[in-house]
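User: Sequence in, structure out. Go.
Assistant: Echoing your sequence, followed by the structure tokens.
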Amino acid sequence: MEFRVRFGTIGGTNRTGTVGLADVLPLLRPANDKWILALSSPYAAGFVTLSGLDGRPKSQQWSSRMSNRRTGLILDFGGVLTTPLLPAVLAFEQREGLPQGACLTALYKDDAGVRITSDLERGAVSQTEWNEFAGKMLGVSPDNLMGRIFGDLRPEPLLIDAAAAARRAGIKVGILSNSVGLAPWDLYQGYELEKLYDVVVISEQHLMRKPDPNLFEITLKLMDLPAEECIFVDDTEAYVQAAEQLGLAGVHNQDPKQTVTTLSELLGVDLTAS
């Protein structure tokens, strides 16, 4: 008997393949009231579905687990360890009397806006220079503009607590964040990154930005772990996909509770435990 195997991740289905029953049986592992298909492929980070070649399902959807234990967790900062970015931006627009979507249009859809934001993340321009540009584009005061835009961001306790639980379990936890400049407003102030995490990589300090593969490689080197042992979490799907291309397991953070559940499964550690 042959089976078609669909490998998937949080970011979506990656590939399919055909395997024989003899190939499947050695990979089965008991786990509570179900069986786990333990695979070594980096594409098996989310789920595996088996079906016969006639297309009829031969099993329920199976959870999958990497045969090599994950020992590293790399987290984005804004939108992962903080509350989501978009509501903060919308609240800023409302306070300033701007039409909804004004920031997105002026800074992330306009070519000049995209360039200067990219330059900011790489440390090529200062936050003050970005504030001046963005203030003109939006027709608002440039004074501490970055801080005003993201002033409503708050810590995300579910993921902060999960990261702490991972470290207690012996998992190395790193931060990989695209910078928005460090002055006059510091996005990271009060989060004690150097104290609470094993590795902290801020893009501007390395003169590059996600999704540059070299920035991921720098982070992995500082973590002293291979890509295959690490999980990367980001709220930007394109950055998750870039990490997956390098062999990391990717988790696209859209709901903190679901992300913690997924990480607990991938790491084999209950990250909800206090």
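User: And one key feature?
Assistant: The two ends are 46 Å apart (CA to CA).
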